[in-house]
Every structure is written in C-alpha cells, then in structure tokens.
Amino acid sequence: MRFKGIIFDLDGVICFTDKYHYKAWKALADKLGIYFDEEINDRLRGVSRMASLDIILERSEKKYSEEEKLRFAEEKNELYRDLLAEMSPSDISDEVRKTLSALRERGLKLAIGSSSKNTPLILKKTDTAKYFDAVSDGNNIAFSKPDPEVFLKAAGFLGLKPEQCLVVEDAFSGIEAGVAGGFATAGIGPASQYEKTDYPLNCFADLLKTPIE
Fold first, then answer.
1. What per-residue confidence (pLDDT) applies to 213?
2. By Cβ atoms counted within 10 A, which residue in 11, 115, 124, 156 is the most buried?
C-alpha cells in the first residue's frame, strides 16, 4: 500500500467555517474601526489566530501592546465559538462522509491535522470525530503551519512515519507544512493549483482515485 494513513486539515477540507471566521473578524475589526473585507479574509486562510490578527491590524494607525492583541484574539475566538454553536451534522457533505467511510474500509488510518484550537468543538458539532483515529490540533502544538509540527504529531499519534502518510490540504501554507515534514500532499480548492502539491483534487471524492494503495 502506497500510504497507510491520511491526515486531513479540517477547515476548508472536511468542513467550511470561513463564514463564521469572517463574521467574527469583521465584528472585531468594526469595533476597532479597521477596514476589513473578504479579500483580506482570504489572506487568513491557513494562518494562526495571532498571525491573522497581525494581518488585520496592518491597516490600523494605532500600535497595540501584546497584552491588547491577546485580548483581541480571545474576543474574536469567543465570537467565533458562539457562531460555531450554529453548526450541525448537516455542515458535512454526504460526499465527505462517504469518502471517509470508504477510506476506513480500505484499512487506512485517518487523522486530523489542524492548527485550530476549536477542532474538538467542530468535530463534536458535526458528528465527525468517529471517522478519525487521531487528532492533532492547536491544543497540542507550539507552531502553526507552514511549520510541519501538527502533521508530524498526527503521524506519530497514528504510529506512522511521514512517508507512510498523505496530507490533504486546501491552503498553500498547509502544503508547505506537509512538504517540510516529508509528507506527500493532496490539494483541494486553492491548493489544487499549487505547484508543490503532489495530487491535485477536483473534489473530495477524488481521494478514492489517487494512488493511495
């Protein structure tokens, strides 16, 4: 078998919470009197919370202390978590569920590799934890993507080496992290067009057509 495990990014691959992130960041930016739109929001894809905040604050004429930044980031996350309460199993497509089930039936080990600290909440709200043998997320890593730590830990949790795992990502930074960690990568969405992506996917179900076995 070409791979024994597959490690998935969460947001933008398994589910889509962009609209919730956007609403939360927009509310914070409006409060601070900083311009924020969907184009700026696109720059936050695959980026850590604090790095995202720094991008938003680029347009601010005021300089903020680290203490203030931490408070802003926590305020955004509280807004985001409140919005996540709206999520349900219906936020996961039948295509994703059927593909994950098929991969498990083939004997592959599946894991989540996400920088988000809200991963446990999202998996619970969408009833998707049952598909994964391991979860590596923002709660157990020190470095966000493009650092490969989250994927290396996920592989370790599965008891596998990087070369035995395929990383599935939608963000360039996620593909960079996979490459840096010694993983083969599959790209969906924007990442499908990235030159460093090994296996471009037109849709999630295309995973079943890739040479994973």
1. 61
2. 115
Q: What is the mean pLDDT of the chain?
A: 94
Question: Mind giving me the DSSP string for 104-164?
Answer: HHTT-EEEEE-S-TTHHHHHHHHT-GGG-SEEE-TTS-SS-TTSSHHHHHHHHHHT--GGG
> What would you measure as the largest C-alpha separation in the chain, in angstroms?
55
Write down the catalytic residue from 9, 137, 147, 170. Answer: 9
Sign of the torsion formed by the C-alpha atoms of 85, 116, 80 and 12: negative
What letter does residue 52 receive in the DSSP assignment? H
Average pLDDT over residues 75-101: 95
* pTM attached to this predicted model: 0.85
Q: Which residue shows structure tokens 């997320």?
A: 137
54 noted as active-site residue:
no
Could you give the 3-state DSSP secondary structure of residue 199? strand
HSE, CB side, 13 Å, CA atoms: give it for residue 168: 29
Is 206 tagged catalytic? no
Confidence class for position 1, pLDDT limits 50, 70, 90: low
